[in-house]
Amino acid sequence: MGKGYLIDTNTIIEFQANKLPAKGHSFVAKTIDESFDISVINKIEILGYASVTKKTKDFIALASVYELDSKVVDRTIELRKHYKIKAMIY
């Protein structure tokens, strides 16, 4: 089993809008073909737009969605501390 990737909301939005550089677009396309994983937070962010298209809804329906449980929350906290990742708050 290879490396898995949890795809970020902004990456999905830019991928669908063809705004990623060619190399990035190719990498994301390959990753999505192999295993399309998002978090429940990504799903909420993407589908929470009033103008979400059917294409986007169908795309997200293909993803494996990681739900929030205490194990996921604790690991997220560890990763945020280790890599100094900021949470986006709107």
Please give a structural write-up:
- The protein is mainly α and about 90 residues long.
- The protein has one domain.
- Helix content is about 55%, strand content about 5%.
- It has five helices and two strands.
- The chain has helices at about 10-15, 20-35, 40-45, 55-60, 70-85, and strands at about 35-40, 65.
- A two-stranded parallel ribbon has the order 1-2.
- The longest helix has 14 residues, at about 70-85.
- The mean pLDDT is about 85.
Indicate the topology:
Elements lengths: L8 H8 L5 H13 L2 E3 H8 L6 H8 L2 E3 L3 H14 L7
Parallel strand pairs: 1-2
Key features?
90 residues, mainly alpha, two-stranded parallel ribbon, 7% strand
Tally of helical segments: 5
- Rg, Å, rounded: 14 Å
Binned strand content: 5-15%
DSSP strand tally: 2
Measured as a percent range, the helix fraction is: 55-70%
**Helix-strand pattern, N to C?**
HHEHHEH
Low-confidence stretches: none
**Mean of pLDDT:** 87
Physical arrangement of strands within the biggest beta sheet: 1-2
Main β-sheet: number of strands, strand sense, barrel status? 2 strands, parallel
Distance between the termini: 36 Å
Number of domains: 1
Query: Could you say which structural class the secondary elements and strand pairing correspond to?
Result: mainly alpha
Q: Which outline best applies?
A: globular
